[in-house]
Structures
1.
Amino acid sequence: MEPALIFDLVLLLILIGLAWLLLASTDLFRAVVLFIAFGLLLALAWVRLGAPDVALAEAAIGAGITGALLLVGLGRLGSTERCRFSRAPLTFLQRLSAPVLVGVMIPSISLILLLEVHQLAGTTPGRQGLINAFLDVSGSGHGVTAVLLNFRAWDTLLEKGVLLLALITIWSLDQARPLFHQEDISPQLMGLARLLLPLVIVVAGFVLWQGDQAPGGAFQSGALLSAGILLAILVGYSLPQRWQGLSLRLLLAIGFGVFLLIAAATLLYSGYPLQYPEHLAGSLILLIELVATASIAALLAAAVVGGHPPDDLSTPAAKAPSTSGRR
Amino acid sequence: MLLSDLITTLLLICSLPFFLAGTLGLLRFPDLYCRLHALTKADNLGLGLVVLALMIQADSWQVVIRLLLTWLLVLVAGATVAHLIARKAQQDGHQPWRR
Amino acid sequence: MIELYISLALILLLTIAIGLVRVLRGPTATDRMLAAQLFGTTAVAILLLLGQAGGNTAIWDVALIFALLAAVAAVTFVRRKDIDTTTET
């Protein structure tokens, strides 16, 4: 057997086993670490599937944000003792659900997927031909970017909306509380942050710019930046209080807002939302990607902080770490 | 077989023991501080040898710099994290293992 | 050469699988975090090897991002307002 095939099979087995272990784990911290490992391996899987765009996003999200998000969330739950599930005696329906799930649903879903994949096998190029035919009028030199920001821009618009909605929900729950020790920062950690932050910004810019020709783009870049903001918060930087009001909210909403405005303008101009005029397509995509990057970075970092900035900004009691680091 | 291929093969094979030792140490060493020690071998030499092996295969200096940067970043992150975790463990009152 | 790269990547993948035992066993949260740190390094090595095998430099961008963010999870772990970390399993 070819080594590549064995690699894929082993990766698949580990992923499934890992998914099972982390779902079945009663210790939540263990589940979080297993999830971090799952993210790493998932990025490998995307690479093996020939989807470096998704792998880049998974790397930035999985290595940077999800781990931190879950660790912070776990910290908010309180002592680890309380984070363990207690196993209550099972009811009759619960007892029934396991055999139904394992015996009936998994085989039938597998069968449906198998049939679908079997049908797909004949049409491997998929939409590649169609995308390539229209690539030169799309305003982007990279097929995935053309799909995300032109052919199927509607989906991406809604995705930005979902992110914003998620943060609104988080903010409606609680006020941000201090998450990190403010004192006693190791000088080595400061050094690491000072070394990494400029590099993160440069690489995020590179990833964004590269999205025009190669795997990359707003989401990957924004996720990377948000990890940078998180690192800054972790070493004690915070957003000045005068920027925590309207400026922060504008930053969070600008990605979705500008995208929506462009959708409205194109609706008036051409009769269809997000059907760009051909000569403007490139510039519009660049504009959307730039504002989206800023918003995604701020939204993801704010989600980790998990709470709205203090209502009364004038009181110095608001020692909460800022909702997003330096800008 | 080209000389460069031969060197790459040798370096890659040399890198393997360090990853294996890192994993073995992670599993077998008796306490946190010892495991921390095992871990950094993979960062430093394991990945270092892989990067060196691939640098020999590189066809432009940009690729060499890119590989080197990746390794240096992992190295810096690994060293800092090892320090931070050891410090935290000490503050938490972990006692080093004694025979 | 390509077989060599992939085979080595496969062995590294297996070391991750074996390392999972430490995550499962613990005993402390810090031990589990250590294992995740090792997985990060190993994943970077696997990505570099896969990139070389496939001749696709986009994969190296993924490795670069992993390397850049290698410390983020562990730093969050160390810095967060802490709860008891000595959970026995």
2.
Amino acid sequence: MSAISGAVQRSRNRYEAAVPETVQQWIDRNGSLLLVAPGLFAFSTFMLFPLVFTLFISFTDATSATIFQGSQDFATVEIFGLSLPFGNYVELYADPQFWTSFGITWLFVATSVGLKVGLGVFIAMILTGDRVRGKRWMRAIVIIPLGLPGIFTITVWSGIFSSARFGLMNRFLSTFGLGPVNWLQGDRWMAFLSYNVTEMWLAYPFMVIITVSALQAVPKELHDAAKVDGAGFLHRFWHVTVPAIKRPVLFAAILTAAASFQQFLIPFIFNQGGPNRNNELIILYGYKEAFQQYQYGYGAAIMLTAVFFIGIFMWINVKKGRLAEGVDGE
Amino acid sequence: MSLARRLAASVREDVVNAATAPARAYDHALYTIEGMRTGDVDPLEVAKTVLITLGALAVVSIMLYPIYYVFIAALQGEGATLYSPGSDLFVPSEPTLEAFLWVIGDLAISSYRIAVTIPATGYDIVVQTPAIEILDVSDYGVERTSNFPLYLKNSLYVAAVTVTVGMALVVPGAYVLSRRRFVGRMKVLYGYVLFTQIGGGLGIAALIALYLIFVNMGWTNSRFMLGLYYAAVAVPFNTWLLKTYMDSIPVSYEEAAIMDGASPARVAWEVVLPLAKPGLATILIFIFLAGWTEFVIANLMLEQQYHTLPVGLYALIGDYTIPWGRFSAFALCFAFPIVLVYLFAQRYIESGLSFGGMEG
């Protein structure tokens, strides 16, 4: 026992002799970093490093034939007489397929966010209504989809949108006398519609939770006062409810817009972005270029273009959202 | 243990509450009818309330119908297909568990040979365990069964790695982020939150590089490395979550322990961690789910014999010979345990989810 503590004491002395005082103080103050470091290191290895590596790949002409031999070369392009490694980017921004994908991605963001916010606020309004009985119970069960794994939800919905005559959606249409629709492989807008419906269903519980808590924060007196003044339902909705829930709903909309922009699973599982590559949302476009065409460099350029826009979402979130709140933990 | 007891108590409370709800509603209705008879309650108002409540119920039912439909389809086994009008939409006319039997397959504990060499004597003890057959699905007319057991085994392997490594990475980090001040603390927190709220798709954006790294290192088809990856990606969200939870534990407990002469390590181990049990349970579930439900990377990295459950589920929809009923049963066996855990843990999860800005 004493031999061990003696050894500890000796190494302690040696440490104090060898390391400068200021460094020792720094270590004493910041030694807790050591406990954060493993997590930070693991996260950086598997997330940040691949992102940086993606940047490198996007400058090369890496394909399955070259990258594994390490024989890839920079994809250069002549700009002002300089040979710069932006070949993939120049090629990409001249590719009509890129602009199809880019356009449909932003259209998807716009339509799906509109639907998600609309449906979320609608359900939240119903489930906080004065006359609705059992609303707490209904609120508890209506958010069940939040607990379902995305892969489950999306595979199930791809079955619902089956082009078969007795797929669920076609059966639903047939009750209105409408013929079977080839949802996923026929018309591009039918496929696009099916994406929107699924995305809406995936995200509405999140919107409901946020809107309900915002609605509950609206003082009842405000509504009563407006009623006394003779304001109708629409009038009260616009002048009392909307101003009160605007901020939280806007914040949720930013988050959910970022999620829509990065949507990959729905088009991948439904129909691989078809028909005719018309609905390839941008992440899927990059994925397919890399793993189905084996154009790793080109795919990396697409992915980084997407990352750039995700970065913009993050920036908006920091500026407009209330991200920083709670970081300090009061 | 007290955590389990408390969970059980809250579950019991919920169940009792739900079970007595009809009785309370009935009392309420009787009271209202009585009021109408005596003229205290306006029948028109009552009718409005009933109509609006029914409307709300209809909206909720429509939203949840797809889940219900999956249940119904699963109970119809081979009868439920997308190509014939045979399947029922509301009540299964001939409920059968055939589809679930197809998913689970034969349940049998095969015979193992256990050999133990006793040191220094040279004797071997060999035990042959008997094969135990619990369920033979061919008795019920199911011939070829699904790959569910194989995928389940793979998923459990990956999840075990994810949870072990993930907890080891997250808990110490969350503790010091909550209790100590050091350089770069705010930066780390800020980065973690930013990634959590927006960065879900970055994992796929970095996928090309990740794939090339995995191939170069020979890590494809390694379930261990996949588990490690899931653990690493789960770090930001769960560290943040646990840190938030630990912030809510009063510091005075620790101060008392320090006054009594406990070392910092002992304070963390014997004071903070026991108090943070609900938070620990929550992140355990989240870390587990991160790997359990991930599809894209598992689909890309693993060969068929290593596929996890989500990949197995995806493979089914491409196979047109699979009836919708069997697909539904497979999907339910995969997702339903998760939903149960989620529902039971909902209170803890919600108490842990008090993000800045999330509360509105």
